[in-house]
Amino acid sequence: MSFCARCGAAAEPGSALCRRCGAPLEAPAAGETTRAAAAPRYGGFWRRAWAFALDRLLVATVVFPFFGLAFLHALRTMRFGDEPDPAQAFEVFSAFLTLACAGAALGWLYFALMESSAKQATLGKMLLGVRVTDLAGRRVSFGRATARYFCKLLSALILGIGFIMAAFHSRKQALHDLIAGTLVVREGGVT
Predict the structure, then answer these.
(1) Residue 26: other Cβ atoms inside 10 A
(2) Is the separation of the CB atoms in 8 and 190 below 8 Å?
């Protein structure tokens, strides 16, 4: 018996396409008749969660010192009195808004560039032995990695349920993976 390399479903004998996902089926190589020979090893929920936490910590260690410096500068230059100075308040607000936008752009570029690189993984994912692929197991484009990154906002906005979905999905896909058409697989690709 053979299995679909994309979704892991059992293949109908003599069928050229998977009955579940429609992917073309390849004939199994000599001796490859088990599900383990064709099914990818997906990155599980906790492995992905730890990788994400490590990556966020890394981005924060780069961005946070700039927020600290801006805060110290604001405290040093502010004149505390009875009447607040609107121009000074606007200057402080603008500095923090600029830093927030720069931090968001840095996070986006970090995730999108690393996941679309030849390594197919951020530093956290590399440490935990997972990488991002498309549904066929290929490297994702920068555009798809960007879509995946911004779809994480949707996963977060619904009280994190989009992330939790990875614990229960058969291919360990979170909501942002389903929308972007990506998988997180363990190094080595297949078992």
Answers:
(1) 13
(2) no
Q: What is the pTM of this model?
A: 0.73
Q: Do residues 48 and 182 lie in contact, with contact meaning Cβ atoms separated by under 8 Å?
A: no
The mean pLDDT value for 70-83 works out to 73
Q: Print the SS3 string covering 53-110.
A: HHHHHHHHHHHHHHHHHHHHHHHHHCCCCCCCCHHHHHHHHHHHHHHHHHHHHHHHHH
Region for 160 from its dihedrals, namely left if φ exceeds 0, alpha if ψ lies in -120 to 50, beta otherwise: left
98-102 long-range CB contacts below 8 Å, 24 or more apart?
Answer: 99/63, 99/66, 99/67, 99/70, 102/63, 102/66
Q: What is the CA radius of gyration of the chain?
A: 22
Beta pairing partners, 134: 182
